[in-house]
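pinging the channel bc i need a second pair of eyes. not urgent but kinda urgent?? the chain im working w is below, pasted from the shared doc
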Amino acid sequence: MKKQEKGKKIWIPGISLLLLRILFISAGLIALLFALKNPIKELCKKYVFYEVIKHEDELSQLIGRYTECAKENGDFYIHISNRDERSNRVFYKKLEDKQVSDAFKRFNLIAIRYDQEGNITFTVYPHIGLLIEGYSYGFYYSEQDEPIKGAIEIEEEGFRRYQWHRTEKIIDHWWYYEEINLIRDN
């Protein structure tokens, strides 16, 4: 009986020490990620540049493919989620379009948006959005080979709203973008 009591006494502090170590390691990793958020953003950008240049021919096959839908409905969205299907939104798997499916998988996309002017915006899943509130990024095709929002960098702050958008040319007609959109409660 005394042997069992002694074993419990050793076991409980051992588990407590292990949990404390895990907590300190986790806190250290989180602090490291926050300290490295700008280099991580830069790596994400370089990866998008590389992939767009490498797969330009495949991406170019998507140009104009769903522009008619955009002209009928305003903008036309192809989404990774099948929960929101309004007249201008469709779940990408329902299209049964191999090239669209390949783009979603290759670039880890959330959505593809076709607008009425013939531009196509590809929104990448923002893993770094866990570190930067409201952050999103991706790339787009500009028919006119100009920034879609008309400027390289835009920053607007209004009542309960903050928006920052920056874009950079990848190659002819293809642009990288990143943005922060926040809605404030107070």
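so Helices lie at 2-35, 37-54, 56-60, 67-73, 92-95, 98-107. and The mean pLDDT is 83. — does that match what u expected or am i reading it wrong
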